[in-house]
Amino acid sequence: MSPITIGFIGLGRVGKALAEKSMRAGNRVLLSNSRGPASLTSYVAELGPLASAGTVAEAAQAEVVFLSVRWADISQALQGLPNWEGRIVVDTTNPILADGTFVDLGERTSSELVAAQLLGARVVKAFNSLFAAWMEDEPVQPAGKRVVFVSGDEAEAKNTAKELIAAMGFAPIDLGGLVEGGRLQQAGKPLAALNLLLTN
Ligand SMILES: NC(=O)c1ccc[n+]([C@@H]2O[C@H](COP(=O)([O-])OP(=O)(O)OC[C@H]3O[C@@H](n4cnc5c(N)ncnc54)[C@H](OP(=O)(O)O)[C@@H]3O)[C@@H](O)[C@H]2O)c1
What we know:
By secondary structure, the protein is an alpha/beta fold. About 30% of the residues lie in helices and about 20% in strands.
């Protein structure tokens, strides 16, 4: 896959870990947070020429966008953005509040609720099942590659996400559609918080 520009909405532990690994695979990253691009000047300088900072609206224009804000901040982060017109959003979020409480979503999966706020986007759920420390760590270990579960309804979007994830060094494992996969990989479900390595 040729290098692309990946937008990041949210640049905490998850956003930073995935931006750095995306760059290592040769991609450009356009970073955004709640405080605006000026707050990212020194981090961007540290990352080098493949990195830049912008507003959330600018990051949202990228072909692939990683959404890595806390559950309580999703609506505000996405507020006012125009239709996504088929661009891919990789949803890394979990429905967990600042005090660690899991939000009760009833029968709905978290990515369904996120997707409902991303009109026109092709949503792929990934990385939410790993702790940030595992995303920061080297994905290629002597015993194998760290597994990242991936769910999504659009085959082409999911394939693009899987290629990006593989280029970072992780081993993507496809769990099917957003809802069926979400029921396995979202916080509190059987495949969440598992640090698995896939041997070759
Ligand atoms: N931490 C983990 O172990 C882990 C693991 C898997 C999944 N997740 C999920 O991944 C998501 C991110 O987690 P995290 O640990 O990286 O969180 P974090 O360290 O708290 O970072 C959150 C980021 O979101 C940004 N943000 C907040 N409101 C925003 C807004 N309105 N517009 C744009 N950006 C906004 C913050 O901006 P500022 O920097 O300007 O404050 C910050 O950069 C969460 O949904 C979490 O549940 C976390």
